[in-house]
Amino acid sequence: MTVHLSGEELGITIQTPESSLLIGMHGKNLESFQHIIARMIEKQTKKFIRVHLEVNDYMKSKDERLFRFLDSKIEIVLSNGRPFTMRNLNAFERKKAHDYIALRSEE
Question: What is the mean pLDDT of residues 68-79?
Answer without folding.
Answer: 93
